[in-house]
Design brief:
Elements: H1 3-28, H2 39-60, H3 65-68, H4 77-102, H5 104-108, H6 120-150, H7 155-168, H8 176-193, H9 197-216
C-alpha cells in the first residue's frame, strides 16, 4: 500500500470514529454524570482502543511502521521537555479561558463531581484507560500515523489537519474548539521533536491531572 492508500485508510478510520461518536451522542445524549465511576466506561474504552490500535498498526504495516508512527527518540530530550512545557501552558490557558462557556469536560462526562470511595476500583481502572491507554493509542493514531501521512502536504496543513481530525473524532460539540486546539498543539510538538513520545507524556499528564483535580476539589 502506497502513502496515498494509507492516507485514504486513515481518513476512513477517522471518519468512522467521527460517525460513531456523533451518532452515539445523537442517539444516546450526553454520557452519565460521574462516568469514571462506572465499569462500562473502562470496558468500552479498552475494546475501542484495542480495535483502533489494531487498525492503525495494519495501516502502518509494511511501510516502515516505526517511522510512520514516529516511534523514535526526540532529537533532544531537554528541548522536547521545554517545548512540552510551553505547549502544556498554552493548552491550560486556552482550556481555562473557554471552560466557563464550553464545559468540555462536563460534556464528555469524564470530570467527576468529587470523590466517591465506594467506586474506587472502577475509578482506578478508568484512570488507567484515560491517562495511560488513551494517550498511547490517540498519539499513535493522530500525531504518529496521521501526522506522518499528512506531512508531505506541509507542516501547518498536517498540524491543522491532525488537530481537526482529533477534535471531530471525539464527537463533542461544545468541547470541539478545545479538542481541536489540544490536537493541533500536540501535532506541533510532534513536528518539532520528530517523535510521538513527548506528546504521549504530555497527553497522559494532562488527562491524569484533570482527573485527580476533579476528585480533589
Amino acid at each position: 500500500m502506497d502513502l496515498t492508500g494509507r492516507l485514504t485508510a486513515w481518513l476512513f478510520l477517522v471518519g468512522a470514529l467521527t460517525v460513531i461518536a456523533y451518532g452515539s451522542r445523537a442517539s444516546g445524549g450526553k454520557p452519565p454524570k460521574n462516568a469514571v465511576y462506572h465499569w462500562n466506561l473502562a470496558i468500552s474504552g479498552v475494546v475501542e482502543y484495542a480495535i483502533v490500535l489494531g487498525v492503525v498498526a495494519a495501516i502502518a504495516w509494511g511501510g516502515g511502521g516505526r517511522r510512520l508512527l514516529a516511534l523514535r527518540r526526540p532529537v533532544s530530550w531537554p528541548r522536547a521537555l521545554g517545548l512540552s512545557f510551553l505547549v502544556l501552558v498554552a493548552i491550560v490557558v486556552v482550556a481555562g479561558a473557554l471552560s466557563s462557556v464550553l464545559h468540555a469536560g462536563r460534556e464528555q462526562g469524564l470530570t467527576p463531581n468529587g470523590w466517591q470511595s465506594r467506586h474506587a476500583a472502577a475509578f482506578a481502572t478508568n484512570f488507567v484507560v484515560i491517562a495511560v491507554l488513551a494517550p498511547i493509542v490517540e498519539e499513535l493514531t493522530f500525531r504518529g500515523l496521521g501526522y506522518s501521512l499528512l506531512e508531505r502536504y506541509g507542516r501547518w496543513i498536517a498540524v491543522a489537519g491532525v488537530g481537526l481530525a482529533f477534535g471531530v473524532a471525539h464527537g463533542l460539540v461544545e468541547g470541539l474548539p478545545v479538542l481541536v486546539f489540544f490536537g493541533s498543539a500536540l501535532a506541533w510538538l510532534r513536528s518539532r521533536t520528530q517523535s510521538v513520545f513527548p506528546g504521549m507524556l504530555l497527553h497522559a499528564l494532562f488527562n491524569g491531572a484533570t482527573l485527580v483535580l476533579a476528585v480533589s476539589t
